[in-house]
């Protein structure tokens, strides 16, 4: 595989980032979304929109499970569009987008981890923590206001003002959380332990409250298992199959709404196979200490900054004026496995969206290493940064970038 097999995000055409505008138009009749012209004729307005986001449920999975009752019904009675994820193809970018309407280049929340100037360190934004740990809220001692780390304007107050209150179903493990407290402002949240619990409660809410509204359900276990076992793993398939069965059984089966109700089913990104045994660790390459390390950026205390991103999209911070030399050093060492691009070129080429904020640029690294299918390039610090997964995302391959948008009147 080569870079010619990479997929560029189709912003303002058929991209995940076009979904918030579609939702707003379907409910309020206001604004524009390019997805409206791609879809077969829909009602001009809907009183209720149900939006289900299955984390990691890329196009390959939609095709794999096309014979599931839910997807067969959608094929028979609804329609499905193929969209692209944003770049990077990450949950942080897409979840922030769906709640705020901002592209990744606007929000600045673009990866699992990246450098945050306000902290002068790498952070994990979804956890409100320093990078390299799965513990939440380790940034609290810094006293950095979370509202300075995340967008504070969401789509929900505007929907509520027009008579469409938002109801958000998310896992209890992170609902509430520091991130969600900011990013879900203006919506009512419903934490859940299991997917069937969420679906049963969502249906009960729909039947009890017949008023107009927006209903959002986010499910992440499919992505977790795809990381652990790979997208081709049997446990991954079982988890996705179970989720699709549960949605059909507990939510949409025999649903006969007296209100005009539309179901949208999509994903934030897909996944591709990787192998911990073949991961190339950048800081383990011969000559790294002598030749590359002096070219890399440090924080204000002189501590070396690890990369942002992941093993599928490694964002490397270089010293001012050193980006060309660093790119020239890395490129031959990853030949046949990855491409090394300048971030500023990717910004100019529109990979991060049509609008770029100063916040995003302040967090963006200088180089991006983009592995080809099946490859992974990462950074090694024992106990902090290791590549242990058999499935991953963040890059530009079709398996990571192609996602479905299934549409069904219920």
Describe this structure in words.
It is a single chain. With 410 residues, the chain is of the alpha/beta class. Helices cover 31% and strands 19% of the residues. The chain is built from 16 helices and 18 strands. The protein has helices spanning 19-28, 34-38, 59-64, 69-77, 91-100, 104-107, 156-161, 178-183, 195-208, 221-229, 234-252, 288-292, 323-330, 343-348, 358-363, 398-401; strands at 48-54, 79-84, 114-116, 121-124, 129-130, 166-171, 188-192, 213-219, 261-266, 272-273, 280-281, 308-310, 313-316, 338-342, 367-371, 377-378, 391-392, 402-409. The strands form 5 sheets. Strands 2-18-9-1-8-6-7 form a 7-stranded mixed β-sheet, with helices on both faces. The protein has a 4-stranded antiparallel β-sheet with strand order 12-13-15-14. Strand 3 (114-116) and strand 4 (121-124) form a beta hairpin.
- In angstroms, what separates the terminal alpha carbons? 42 Å
Radius of gyration: 21 Å
Q: What is the CATH H-level superfamily of the largest domain?
A: Alkaline Phosphatase, subunit A
What is the number of helical segments per DSSP (H or I, 4+ residues)? 16
CATH topology of the largest domain: Alkaline Phosphatase, subunit A
Number of beta strands = 18
List keywords for this structure.
410 residues, alpha/beta, Alkaline Phosphatase, subunit A, Gyrase A, domain 2, 2 domains, 16 helices
């Amino acid at each position: 595989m080569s870079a010619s097999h990479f997929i560029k995000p189709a912003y303002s055409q058929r991209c995940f980032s076009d979904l918030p505008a579609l939702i707003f138009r379907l409910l309020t009749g206001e604004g524009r979304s390019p997805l409206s012209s791609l879809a077969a004729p829909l009602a001009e307005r809907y009183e209720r929109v149900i939006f289900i986001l299955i984390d990691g449920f890329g196009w390959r999975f939609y095709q794999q499970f096309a014979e599931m009752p839910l997807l067969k019904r959608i094929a028979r009675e609804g329609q499905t569009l193929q969209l692209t994820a944003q770049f990077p193809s990450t949950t942080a970018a897409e979840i922030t987008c769906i709640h705020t309407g901002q592209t990744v280049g606007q929000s600045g929340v673009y990866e699992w981890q990246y450098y945050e100037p306000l902290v002068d360190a790498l952070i994990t934004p979804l956890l409100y923590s320093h990078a390299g740990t799965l513990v939440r809220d380790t940034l609290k001692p810094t006293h950095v206001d979370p509202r300075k780390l995340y967008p504070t304007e969401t789509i929900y107050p505007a929907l509520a003002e027009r008579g469409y209150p938002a109801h958000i179903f998310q896992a209890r493990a992170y609902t509430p959380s520091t991130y969600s407290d900011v990013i879900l402002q203006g919506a009512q949240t419903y934490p859940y332990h299991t997917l069937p619990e969420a679906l049963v409660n969502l249906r009960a809410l729909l039947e009890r409250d017949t008023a107009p509204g927006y209903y959002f359900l986010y499910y992440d276990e499919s992505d977790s298992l795809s990381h652990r076992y790979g997208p081709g793993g049997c446990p991954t398939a079982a988890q996705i199959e179970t989720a699709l069965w549960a949605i059909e059984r507990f939510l949409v089966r025999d649903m006969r709404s007296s209100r005009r109700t539309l179901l949208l089913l999509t994903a934030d990104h897909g996944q591709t196979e990787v192998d911990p045994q073949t991961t190339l660790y950048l800081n383990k390459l011969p000559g790294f200490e002598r030749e590359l390390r002096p070219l890399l950026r440090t924080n204000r205390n002189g501590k070396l900054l690890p990369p942002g991103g992941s093993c599928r999209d490694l964002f490397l911070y270089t010293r001012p004026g050193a980006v060309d030399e660093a790119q020239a050093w890395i490129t031959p060492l990853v030949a046949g496995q990855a491409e090394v691009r300048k971030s500023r070129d990717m910004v100019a080429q529109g990979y991060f969206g049509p609008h770029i904020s100063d916040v995003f640029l302040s967090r963006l690294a200088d180089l991006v290493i983009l592995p080809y299918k099946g490859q992974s390039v990462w950074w090694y610090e024992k106990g902090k940064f290791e590549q242990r997964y058999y499935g991953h995302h963040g890059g530009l391959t079709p398996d990571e970038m192609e996602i479905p948008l299934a549409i069904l009147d219920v």
